[in-house]
Amino acid sequence: MNRDAEYSASDDALDDAIREAMRVDADEHQLAHLEHYWRVQSQRERWRRKFRRAMASAAAAIAFVAAVVLVWHRDKERESAQVIQGSPRKLVDSDSAKRPLADDTKSIAPPPSVGRPPTAYERFVFVARAGVEVHPRLSAAKINDAIQRVASNADADPAQVLDASSLKRADAEMLLLRRLPSAPADQQHAILRLLVECGSPRSAPALARLARNESLRIEALTTLEQIVGIDGLAQTIANSSDANVRSALLLRLLTADSQAGLLGYLSLVRNDATRAEALSVAKNAPHIPVAELIALLDHGEEPVRVAAALTLGHVNGPETTRLLIARVTEQPANSPEAWIALMACRGEMTRDFLDYATHRPQLLGHYNNARVRWGQMIP
Questions:
Q1: Number of domain units in the chain
Q2: Checking CA distances to 368, which of 204, 240, 300, 375 falls within 20 to 30 Å?
């Protein structure tokens, strides 16, 4: 019994260690490989525990018999000891030879070597999939039925379909992400609709990869936005390696008609690694929220004000220049970032106004301060 408690405590410690490792991605072949490994390991562990209990009873019986034999047959003491020592080895050999493997191991790759401890990756996959793989065929059938129902009926409510499947949301998400890359186009649309209801931030990498397909880009990024929120897209941009996907996400942030989206966009303007790409998207965007950007020149945080000024100066254009000139003329002392934006603007209207400012005492001081600050910002 002490040994059983020891194993239970060890299992609890292993579970705690496993949950700390749950940040790893997997592919289908690796998962199948690990599933088989853990299935065989679990079955062997159950046999070992039964064997230990049987051995404890057998040892007690053998000890009793040995004591009787020792009293009546002292001359056979050595033979009795050999029987006691040899019996466990024979039982172990017999158990290993007769115990069958799981029925479905024929179609799965051989397991990793049993002698080594599992890696953090293997622990994560085993625990993360434990709920789904109790009945893998039943779970697969349920998610397939949910996908078919949504794919065949545009009016189907994905939330109700998932509720009817009786799958946990986390399990449904994992199964859907597994199916997403290789599913037919109509099923991919259905999977995206279902992910809106059960997706979590761990769906973001798969959706960003799917967005590389131009025909699915808008729908994939819309699904991503519904899962992580408009303010969560900035993190996805920083982690994406595809330029087209990053540009699409930047444009979505810039034109989202949301201050959260605009602030997310400006956070990428402030980042040295993404500034050039973010400003290029703004320059080529069909519509820029100029009025909203000018309003952010009054934001409480200076980095936000400066990023808005850089964006306005890069976008340039007559309308932007006119609004900036109006701002610095009406509030010359309270518009340091607006002056910086004008410094970044180009065109005849900008040159004429800055020349005008050098001849107006009420503007000249602010203009000179802006020139110094702009010179410090530009390498």
A1: 2
A2: 300
